[in-house]
Amino acid sequence: MKAIISLFLPGGLLVLASLFLVHLGGVKAHLDTIAGVYPYVVYIGAMLLGWRFNRSALVFGTVSIALAHWCLALFTPGMPGAEITSRIAYDAVTLLLPLNLLVLSLVKERGFITPWGIGRLSLILGQPLMVGLIVGPDPWRFAALLEYEYLPWGFLSLQPVSQTGIAVCIATLALLGFRSVRSCGAKESGFFWAAAACFAALSAAGQGPVMSFHFATASLILLVSVVEVSHTMAFRDELTGLPARRALKEDLLKLPGQYCLAMLDIDHFKKFNDRYGHDVGDQVLRMVASKLDRITGGGKAFRYGGEEFTVIFPGRYADDALDHLEEIRKEVASSAFMIRSGFRPKEKPRKPKARGSGGKRVSVTISIGAAWPGSRSTTPNEVLKEADKALYRAKKQGRNRVAG
């Protein structure tokens, strides 16, 4: 459910809004004026934001959309009696634009004023020239090849996009949708819905203002996705996936009159890290975080820093919260952590060894300190300090326990 919601918002909402608005009476009456301003505002804004935050995916995605928009507007594809150049421009865009968005969603951020960035920009801007060179002296044959009807289904002829273009768009949307659901990432979701908006634009060939409106929405979706990514980087811990300390500070300000705060620490983590290495230490942090992310009783876990975590129980009394903290302590202690052997083969053997022969099982435990509002601590920050003191007592008492 979480993956579906993450996939749909906000990109899906923007696509639906775009499809609705172009048919809304008040907007439709002024669509020519809106379409003359809206795309340029979004394109310029997206490129400036991408440059400011060094997000090459946003810059190059916007360049791809704007270039496609410009080509289609210049050659007015889809109009009755259109010249062969219009048909070729339209068919080429239906193939290249989805593929450009797919590739840009896959590549890593390497900046745009870099050799990598300049190379990618050159490939995108050089595509019209490449199409012209491929078409050569026989454009009609090229157009016939791109517009070949593989399936004798009459309803497909109602769609201006060729069957080849439809196949490319569907394949692109399927791959982007799969990656978005799998990663729950704002970037992947943004490119999925941007591609969907571009398909809506391509389907509106011959309706210049509608096409322009959908193309601008596609770029707007990419812009919003960058804002989402920036928010995630600021408020969510990259290693564990839990909300980070900045998110904790904001949630502390929203606490009701009754609540419980807990500070957790992985026992002997420094020795564990020194002995087995930082990579294994990171695996332990992720394992503990995955347990805390499923804590019961309405608790919400945060990564405080290092091997420390914080859990908030809004509206909970101490006894109730302590019971849930004890449950999570037992769950972590009973989950033996396997350290894999450093001599593992690169490829999986045909006859794998028996379980337990390829690594070492180690015990991972946590110590927990809990506190709640009282006579000595009335503000959330004061309660958090009391929870930290309780954590220190739990460690002095032998670790692997809850102290309140």
Please characterize this protein's 3D structure.
The protein has 404 residues and is α+β, with helices and mostly antiparallel strands. The chain folds into two domains: 234 residues, no CATH class; 151 residues, Reverse transcriptase/Diguanylate cyclase domain (Alpha-Beta Plaits). It is built from 17 helices and seven strands. The strands form two sheets. Strands 2-3-1-6-7 form a five-stranded mixed sheet, with helices on both faces. β6, α17 and β7 form a beta-alpha-beta unit. It is elongated and about 85 Å long. The relative contact order is 0.10. About 2% of the residues have low confidence.
Features:
Alpha-Beta Plaits, 17 helices, five-stranded mixed β-sheet, two-stranded antiparallel ribbon, 404 residues, alpha+beta, elongated
Rg of Cα set = 28 Å
Number of helices: 17
- Give the overall silhouette: elongated
Uncertain segments: 77-81, 342-346
Query: Using DSSP, what is the number of strands?
Result: 7
Average pLDDT, rounded to a whole number, is: 85
Whole-number total of structural domains:
2
Annotate the secondary structure layout:
Elements (H helix, E strand, L loop, with lengths): L1 H7 L2 H11 L3 H5 L1 H22 L3 H20 L8 H23 L8 H11 L1 H9 L3 H8 L16 H21 L2 H18 L4 H28 L9 H8 L6 E8 L2 H8 L1 H15 L7 E6 L2 E7 L3 H17 L2 E4 L18 E4 L3 E6 L8 H17 L5 E2 L1
Parallel strand pairs: 6-7
Antiparallel strand pairs: 1-3, 1-6, 2-3, 4-5
Helix pairs in contact: 1-10, 2-11, 2-12, 4-5, 4-12, 5-6, 5-7, 5-12, 6-8, 6-9, 6-10, 6-11, 10-11, 11-12, 14-15
